[in-house]
Amino acid sequence: MENVQEVEVVATEQQQDGAPRTEQPKRNFRDNRSDRKGGRRNSRDREVKEDDGLIKKTVSINRVTKVVKGGRTMRFSALCVVGDGKGMVGIGMAKAAEVPQAIEKANLRAKKAMVSIELLDTTIPHETIGKFGKGHVLLMPAQPGTGVIAGGPVRNVLEAVGIKDIRTKSYGSNNPVNCVKATFNGLVSLRSKEHIAQLRGKNVDEI
Question: Do β-strands 135-141 and 128-132 pair in parallel, antiparallel, or remain unpaired?
């Protein structure tokens, strides 16, 4: 018994002096399996999806209430604009029970509905008026350095397209849906000089 106590005293003195321990830690296979699973799960969480380079803007979010037999069901409606900043733009609306789901669905629909817009450098080729319902939006080209002179819903569409110099005026309805769709209608109606010459069967210099 005395020899055993002397060995224990020597071991404690070595630990206090900072001597390295010779004992090997026990391997717990259950812990190792959990670490491997956790490692795979964490690696999936760290994966970052590649950005598609699109400009996504949420114009408005409305709460929609529907009366059914069992009572009232509350949902959310989102209006979003998606563009690449290089002449492509699309608008989308969607409803869902939660706001993030509604925005995600609206962005997906807007991405699928993207169309090409005729541009002239940083502005539009000519003046046009977009109409939708009671909303009217006047779009006018501007000199470089003017900037985007437009209201909230109209500005979101123009910035998503990539227009940097333009002057606008909104008439009639101030509803975001009407303003966005009227602006989209006006942008789609734009025609380049080459396209008009092709329709008329003439050269560009003759126009």
Answer: antiparallel
Domain count, the chain: 2
Domain boundary among 71, 87, 115: 115
Contact of 103 with 80, CB cutoff 8 Å = yes
DSSP β-ladder status, 166-172 and 148-149: parallel
Phi/psi at 181 (nearest 5 deg)?
A: -70, -35
Q: Considering the domain boundaries, does residue 39 fall inside one? A: no
**20 residue type, one letter:** P
Q: Tens digit of pLDDT for each residue in 4-59?
A: 445 444 444 444 555 555 555 555 544 444 444 444 444 333 333 345 789 999 99
How far apart are alpha carbons 115 and 89 in whole angstroms? 6
- Which two tokens mark 7? 């060995």
Are residues 125 and 174 located together in one domain of the fold? Answer: yes
Q: How far apart are the C-alpha atoms of 186 and 142, rounded to whole Å?
A: 16
